[in-house]
């Protein structure tokens, strides 16, 4: 049995509480890690606000983590004690049809992401006293130690800083892939990124690295617009309406080849303005998480068809994490991809609520818990 401090969420609308929980020792196919850094991603806020209702409370949130392997269970071959790993909220079993066809970001094991029990054998392996504890996307990175399935960790080189490993495990891979992989940004394109937070800023980076000629960052927060310019945007606007009015003259009326929706919360009412920004034959990528009950969207279907536009969803940037993460670190080492600069402020585990207050207020681009 392993005891660890963790940030528990006991219900929607509540703050995190730091408590001690108990973890099983690793069994077959499992890994025990000591967390070193965890990014404060907005996706966890969906659990706290209730936009993404959790099937069980209490839950340990956090899914953008990096740590060191402490122990492994029987049959684990991809990592060993002492290895540095990134946590991946998309598990990759390597055996299901999506994994075998090169689409591990759609791994069938993802159906278990919000199960109370372990991915491996379904048992309850996390407890607060006698109460079972869930983990957000089977990770629960707001903890000093965590028990995970081997399919949820990816070995990384030990020279990469812990905070960089943490951020690449979700926000960087998702934002970058939204532009490069799902948006298929090409040299000379005009790209709009709607919402310049921890994911949107990396869509800006991805568009720049892919060779976009014009990159439009849209965000109501002045600090984030400043950061967009720092990371590669050529123009910024404070609202989508302003962008619609401003992008026309910039492009001779053509608008944007690729529009990437990385709003803090995706709502149905935001889709038609995003499509208005999208050029004839262009692509609109929806990366943002919407409330699970959001079942209707505003869309002019006539214009969608007659203008030959594409609407695409994406998860994890539409690339296998085991493929994407090493490539992103190669770009980081080469000085092409900015990772260290993404961190505005670091916090301790006990300051997790402060970190999310700063995120909500627009005072940080990305915060990280450092253990």
Automatic annotation (TrEMBL):
Coiled-coil spans in chain: none
BP term (GO), one: formaldehyde catabolic process
Pfam families with a match to the protein in the record: ADH_N (PF08240), ADH_zinc_N (PF00107)
Cross-referenced SMART domains: PKS_ER
Enoyl reductase (ER) domain span: 13-371
Annotated TM spans: none
Cell inner membrane as UniProt keyword: no
One Gene Ontology CC term in the entry: cytosol
Key words, A-Z: Metal-binding, NAD, Oxidoreductase, Zinc
Cofactor: Zn(2+)
Family from the record: Belongs to the zinc-containing alcohol dehydrogenase family.
PANTHER family: ALCOHOL DEHYDROGENASE, ALCOHOL DEHYDROGENASE CLASS-3
Name of the protein this chain belongs to: Alcohol dehydrogenase
